[in-house]
Every structure is written in C-alpha cells, then in structure tokens.
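Exercise 7. Given the encoded structure of a 213-residue chain, write a plausible sequence.
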C-alpha cells in the first residue's frame, strides 16, 4: 500500500497540472507566443504583468503597455486586451489541442527599450480555488490533501487517455499513409511496365517497317 501511494504521488508530481512561471523579453514592436497542448474542459487561469528590462526604478519609467491575444486550436480568439500593463484572463477549453497566448509590445510607447513580460499560467488542478472548496465542503487537513490527490489522479488518467487517443490517431494516419505509398508504388511500377511494353511494340514495328528484321 505504501509503495502504491508513493507511485501515485510520483506520478502526480510528474503529470499533474502545475503552476508555470514564464518570462518573455519583447524587443521594440516584437511579438512572442507560447502554446500548451490541453484537453477539453480544462480551466486555465493566467496572470501577466510587464516592465522594462534592466530597470530598477519603476516609478521613474512606469510600466510599458502591451497587447495580449489568446487563441484556441482552431484560431478562435479567446481573449484580447490592448494597452495593458498587468491583468489576468481565464477560459475553459472546449476542444483538445494547442492553445496559444501572444504578447506584443507597442513600438510607439517604448521604441528603444526591451520589455519583459511575466506570466503565471495555471490549469487543471492548479487552477482550482482549493480554499473556497475547503470552506464550501467543510474539509481541511488530510482530507483536503486527499481530495487534491484524487483530482490529480483524475487529471493523470485524462492525460493518459489523451495520449492513447493521439497515439491511435497517429498510428491510423501512419497506416493510411503507408497504404497510399504502397498503392502509388504499385501504380508507378505498372506505368513503367506499360511504358516498356509500348516502347518494345513501337521499336518492333519501326524495325519491321525499315525491313531490318
């Protein structure tokens, strides 16, 4: 039992959703994006803020405005904000795939300065408000930790199912591609044989016409 619990805890640490802290440096009017592959029905919460790179006195320089766009795997815009220095966004995934967040600096506001954007990206179990859940369900201590572990196990199970489904889809596509390649190879071989026969017939008729055979 102890060994099984250790395995579950280790798996939860490896695969369960966690908080991700990201730093991105934007130069001039540059744009940078990052993406993450998510399943459907996953809650995502992100906080972001911007500041000038290499500046220690923020009161003197202020905070640079940036624009933020978040896209779904099919290109639908989930969040859009212009001239923001800090904020947050949240959404629930509707379909599995890569969700992308893009941050862009405005060249008019800071033409010769690099801007750093800090992002705290949380999803799944890490995005849950466990304090509110504990107060609502009147649980605490070990019971709360066990509920967190249970949620993490369900998240792991969902990720494993997603990996199995993706592997099955890739295998199906690979088999379909191999079948197309095989048929194309057979068709190419048949065309070569047909071309050779036609060439032989043409040369035979040509030599007979010239009375060479």
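Solution.
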């Amino acid at each position: 039992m102890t060994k099984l619990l250790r395995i579950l805890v280790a798996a939860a640490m490896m695969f369960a959703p966690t908080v991700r802290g990201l730093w991105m440096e934007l130069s001039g009017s540059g744009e940078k994006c990052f993406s993450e592959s998510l399943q459907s029905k996953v809650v995502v919460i992100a906080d972001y803020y911007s500041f000038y790179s290499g500046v220690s006195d923020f009161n003197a320089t202020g905070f640079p405005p940036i624009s933020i766009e978040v896209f779904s795997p099919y290109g639908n815009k989930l969040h859009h904000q212009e001239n923001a220095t800090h904020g947050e966004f949240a959404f629930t995934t509707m379909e599995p795939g890569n969700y992308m967040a893009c941050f862009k600096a405005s060249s008019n506001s800071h033409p010769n300065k690099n801007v750093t954007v800090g992002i705290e990206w949380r999803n799944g179990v890490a995005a849950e408000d466990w304090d509110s859940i504990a107060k609502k369900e009147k649980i605490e201590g070990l019971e709360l930790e066990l509920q967190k572990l249970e949620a993490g196990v369900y998240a792991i199970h969902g990720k494993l199912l997603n990996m199995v489904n993706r592997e099955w889809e890739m295998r199906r596509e690979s088999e379909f591609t191999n079948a197309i390649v095989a048929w194309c190879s057979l068709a190419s071989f048949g065309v070569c044989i047909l071309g050779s026969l036609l060439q032989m017939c043409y040369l035979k008729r040509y030599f007979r016409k010239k009375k060479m055979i």
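Remark. The two ends are 90 Å apart (CA to CA). Students should compare their own answers with the one above.
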